[in-house]
Write a structure and sequence with these properties.
With about 775 residues, this protein is an alpha/beta fold. The chain has 22 helices and 26 strands. Helices cover about 35% and strands about 20% of the residues. The chain has a 6-stranded mixed sheet with strand order 9-12-13-3-14-15, with helices on both faces. It has a 5-stranded antiparallel sheet with strand order 2-1-4-5-8. This is AAA ATPase domain protein.
Length: about 775
């Protein structure tokens, strides 16, 4: 048994998304404000803290607020007209979580109350958890009564007059002015989470990343009680782990779903909790506890005797005051020693440091607060995972609640939610944790043996590319931001990266290996730039930082990937599924009909050997055609996916050379730089390509000769050294970027500004003037 799918709808940015869960671990990735946290909060509200979840109106998707207010106005209008009130149906706007389980027929005894029909023969089972009014009619009645009270009070208020004595509208409006305003105060009292059984035959696939939830009829009856009680144990490590706090809500001592997500997570607190659950000898003692209990009893008796002896003079002095009298009870001093008292102090957990002084060594103990936050966080999370596992498996004293039946009282499924485990951790430790976390949750004989019916699923949300780097591609779920232009407010969809490449195993293998050996921040960026080689990887960001009209890009999260013209197209399926705005900076790479590389020349029947240009965009390989492609034709817009990519390759430019105005055609970044900055390279002395370029400029009589000379110069290598030397020039603004690169970067900047506006956030400033205010 495992959770196959969860669908979240009408909850914050998640208007309707489907998230497929892997059988073991699932990793939520995505750029900032893409909905990862919303998904984790939804899981927490509906699954972890269902009975005490603090839903608010802000948890309802913003695009539904006008619908809610319109519904309230319709109720008021009907009442004012003394007409029949509309049935209060809020189902289209109510937050919900659908949980779809895959259950074998042999496990039917676990899910008896979730089986929809007698025809069910194993497979999917679905449950909807929906936040809705306790009583719809009573909710409607309470709102209308509140509105009537507000209007009545306002009606007796004296009208305000203007200077001419004419009544004007009152400036003060009493609560509630609308149904949404009513809900802001009364939501917690009037709403509750209810559960409904879903029909597996009506589950449909998402369309363009947007889920289509199953419609529940108004006559549907909710499930009594907790639908997952005894079926799923749910634990959570939240992002707010409370290090350094001395107060806060402590975790409950029961073995139910994790509580107190914001509680202090000091190691000593966790040790005390673990002791109470699994080790306390007073709790169902066995033969192994008898020696400890006898030692505690002896120590307590000896301490009592010493206390009575020590307090005897003081008590005798009190008796001299007339108390206690003949009829008064006498004082007796007694101790109560419990092993847990040894952990109830600040130094219960210490870190030992060994000091070596010559041939001698000694140990120093430091309190746990003296250790770095990274180690505290790591040790705390690992210990909590162990505690979750042992509580689930009834380890230690908890085992006394088991019956003789194997697996009895142990829920067959354990779901663990971990939010942003990377906090305070170094990159290497992040990678170690995500590699080991699931194994820790399964480190128990019952769980490790083959054929175990007990399953563990771990869900992790992260902003760390290092965590994503360590995970299999199939485990990643990408949260993608959708622009507000598509809907009234920005929302999100979720992409299962395991389905990106379909049956194309060669592309899948290449991309997976490529991302495993590069910095995998593609899943967290606002945009991507794919560059040809090391020279572009060095110089394109250099141009971006030093060109005044490109400064906006420096304020955005842009990821740079060095992929090469012959391989960039292999990232196409991934880019298209991510819907990530992408600029591909590549080379023209001219060749003859015999596939021999050559300097580019018009009218010579040349082709481009660049696979990206031929197979992705603009989908052409004829050199003369590519040279005449207009700037806006280099943009590929994906209408259904609401994003675009652009290719940037060498384009003809008009220059003046040896007194003649002519067209220059370059083949790579280096010769494009020369044509764009002829005066600079003609006057600059240097080694390697600098020296060869200067000689070629001096000796060439025509642009065609210069192009051929530069082509030969580049055969000698040294491109990376050339790029590094350019970083060292005294005035970076003296070097103009090639036209094709500047056009591409300006397009990318415009797309990111547009994206910021669509997502409802303030854009970058140009000349100190904001382009858009935050919505």
């Amino acid at each position: 048994m495992h959770i196959e799918i969860v669908e979240i709808g009408n909850f914050r940015k998640l208007l309707g998304v489907r998230i497929g869960l892997s059988k073991e671990k699932t990793i939520f990735v995505g750029a900032n404000n893409s909905g990862k946290t919303s998904a984790m909060i939804a899981l927490r509200h509906f699954l972890v803290d269902r009975e005490r979840a603090k839903f608010s109106l802000n948890d309802f998707t913003l695009s539904h607020w006008p619908t809610i207010d319109a519904m309230g106005k319709a109720w008021e209008a009907a009442k004012a007209a003394d007409a029949e009130l509309p049935v209060p149906d809020l189902s289209p706007v109510l937050p919900y979580l659908d949980v779809w389980l895959t259950v074998a027929k042999t496990e039917a005894h676990y899910v008896q109350k979730l089986i929809p029909t007698l025809d069910w023969d194993g497979g999917r089972l679905g449950v909807r958890l929906r936040f809705e009014p306790r009583e719809g009619l009573q909710f409607q009645k309470d709102f209308l009564a509140a509105r009537e009270d507000a209007k009545a009070i306002q009606a007796v208020d004296e009208p305000q007059l203007n200077d001419d004595g004419v009544p004007v509208a009152k400036s003060i409006m009493l609560w509630p002015r609308s149904l949404s305003e009513f809900l802001q105060r009364r939501l917690g009292k009037l709403f509750v989470v209810k559960s409904y059984i879903l029909d597996p035959t009506k589950l449909v696939d998402p369309e363009f990343g947007v889920a289509h939830p199953q419609v529940i009829g108004s006559d549907a009856e909710p499930i009594d009680g907790e639908p997952f009680k005894g079926l799923i144990r749910i634990d959570e490590i939240s992002a707010q782990r409370g290090f350094g706090q001395s107060d806060g809500i402590k975790d409950s001592e029961d073995d139910n779903a994790a509580a107190g997500a914001s509680a202090t997570r000091k190691m000593s607190d966790q040790l005390r909790r673990y002791w109470n659950r699994h080790l306390d000898p007073y709790e169902n003692p066995d033969a192994r506890d008898l020696r400890a209990l006898k030692a505690i009893e002896d120590a307590q008796k000896a301490f009592d005797d010493r206390l009575r002896e020590g307090f005897a003079p003081a008590l005798k002095e009190v008796e001299g005051l007339g108390y206690p009298g003949v009829t008064d009870p006498r004082l007796n001093i007694s101790t109560r020693l419990r092993p847990i008292d040894g952990l109830n102090h600040e130094a219960a957990v210490q870190y030992m440091i060994q000091i070596v002084d010559g041939e001698n060594s000694f140990d120093l103990n430091l309190p746990e607060d003296s250790n770095g936050l990274g180690y505290q966080n790591l040790i705390s999370m690992v210990f909590r995972l162990m505690s979750f596992r042992d509580a689930w498996m009834r380890v230690g004293k908890a085992s006394s609640t088991k019956t003789d039946m194997p697996g009895a009282l142990v829920p067959p499924l354990h779901l663990v939610l971990i939010e942003e485990p990377e906090a305070h951790l170094h990159t290497q430790v992040q990678q170690v944790f995500i590699r080991q976390a699931y194994d820790i949750l399964r480190k128990h004989p019952e769980l490790e043996k083959n054929g175990s019916i007990l399953s563990t699923q771990m869900v992790v949300s992260t902003h760390s590319s290092h965590v994503a780097h360590e995970c299999e591609f199939d485990t990643l779920r990408y949260f993608r931001r959708l622009p507000a232009s598509v809907r009234s407010v920005p929302t999100s969809c979720v992409v299962n990266l395991g389905n990106v490449f379909g049956a194309d195993q060669d592309t899948r293998r290449f991309v997976t290996r490529y991302l495993n050996v590069t910095h995998c921040d593609l899943f967290f960026a606002d945009a991507a730039v794919l560059v040809e080689g090391p020279a572009e990887r060095i110089l394109v960001p250099f141009f971006m930082r030093n060109q005044p009209d490109l400064h906006d890009l420096a304020e955005c999260y842009v990821t740079w990937l060095e992929i090469g013209g012959s391989h960039a197209h292999r990232l196409r399926p991934l880019i298209e599924h991510l819907g990530l705005t992408t600029l591909v900076v590549t080379d023209l790479d001219a060749m003859t009909a015999e596939r021999k590389t050559i300097a580019p020349l018009r009218g010579a029947g040349q082709k481009s050997r660049n696979t990206t240009l031929g197979s992705w965009w603009p989908g052409k390989d004829d050199l003369d055609v590519l040279l005449d492609v207009k700037s806006d034709e280099k943009i590929k817009v994906y209408a259904n996916e609401r994003f675009a990519i652009r290719v940037a390759y060498q384009c003809p430019i008009d220059i003046e050379f040896n007194g003649n105005k002519t067209e220059a055609i370059s083949n790579t970044l280096e010769d494009a730089l020369v044509f764009q900055n002829l005066d600079f390279f003609a006057k600059t002395n240097g080694n390697g390509l600098f020296s060869r370029f200067k000689i070629s400029i001096e000796k060439s009589k025509t642009v065609t000769e210069l192009g051929s000379a530069l082509f030969e110069d580049l055969k000698g290598g040294g491109k990376a050294e050339f790029a590094l030397d350019l970083l060292d020039i005294q005035d970076p603004n003296a070097l103009r970027p090639p036209l094709y690169i500047k056009e591409g970067l300006l397009w990318l900047a415009s797309q990111l500004r547009k994206q910021q506006q669509e997502l409802g956030v303030a854009t970058s400033t140009l000349n100190g003037v904001p382009e858009a205010e935050e919505k």
